[in-house]
Design brief:
This protein is mostly helical and 235 residues long. The protein contains nine helices and no strands. The longest helix has 38 residues. The N and C termini lie far apart (59 Å).
Length: 235
């Protein structure tokens, strides 16, 4: 049973001495904070991009076509390039000041990345709403923007809420790459502890278990809201 004692010692050293478990807790806080603010930013960007794309199809406004072209370029580039490359470009090209806050940089990077995916989710949600709803809004005297705001978007958001929840779960896991710009997230803390114990595997296994626990909890919460929404539809 020597191997079991060695395994216990490895994980004990990765957690207990010097209160190393506090480093994991600190990393989880940073991870969740970045993911939460990034998904809010991503939803804002996603709504703007999706509305522009959908509105440009039937709009006679000459400004809408160039805006839609820019939005298409944005989603194509972001969805077609690796996230870690985007982080390094934004970090080195835009945020070059020495006093730049890496957490804010990471949040902006993930928000921009998430916005491209969220925009396609929202666009699909908008297009899933019956066209008669738009006509009903116009018959009530609403402008296109008012129709979109008060009639179309509320229905679209309800339809795509599960997909947006899944995007948040994916974002939590993707934040692990933010450690490349020296943000002390969960992955960075695991790496730091591994450098102190000279045994890198146990800290990463612990970090993986924490990521798994977070995603399982978020999946359960998402499932609860989906069930509540489905019950509301039945009533």
């Amino acid at each position: 049973m020597e191997w079991l004692n060695t395994l216990y010692t490895s994980f004990y050293n990765a957690l207990i001495p010097e209160k190393r478990y506090l480093a994991y807790i600190s990393g989880v806080k940073i991870t969740l904070m970045v993911a939460l603010f990034a998904v809010f930013l991503g939803v804002l960007i996603g709504i703007l991009v999706a509305v522009v794309k959908v509105s440009a199809k039937n709009s006679k406004n000459p400004v809408m076509k160039p805006l839609a072209a820019f939005c298409n370029f944005y989603t194509t580039v972001i969805r077609g390039t690796p996230l870690i490359v985007q982080i390094m470009i934004i970090y080195n090209l835009i945020f070059t000041a020495r006093d730049s806050n890496e957490i804010i940089i990471g949040t902006v990077c993930f928000g921009i990345n998430s916005g491209a995916y969220v925009s396609e989710i929202i666009r699909a949600g908008i297009e899933s709403v019956a066209k008669g709803q738009t006509e009903a809004g116009r018959s009530l005297g609403f402008t296109h923007i008012q129709t979109m705001r008060y009639i179309i978007l509320p229905q679209a958001i309800k339809n795509i809420l599960p997909a947006l929840g899944n995007e948040f779960i994916v974002l939590v896991k993707e934040t692990s790459v933010i450690s490349v710009i020296a943000v002390n997230d969960l992955t960075k803390m695991a790496s730091f502890i591994g450098s102190r114990t000279w045994d890198i595997l146990p800290p990463y296994i612990i970090a993986a278990a924490i990521y798994l626990l977070i995603t399982m909890c978020l999946t359960s919460v998402l499932g609860y809201f989906e069930r509540r929404m489905s019950q509301g539809d039945h009533h």
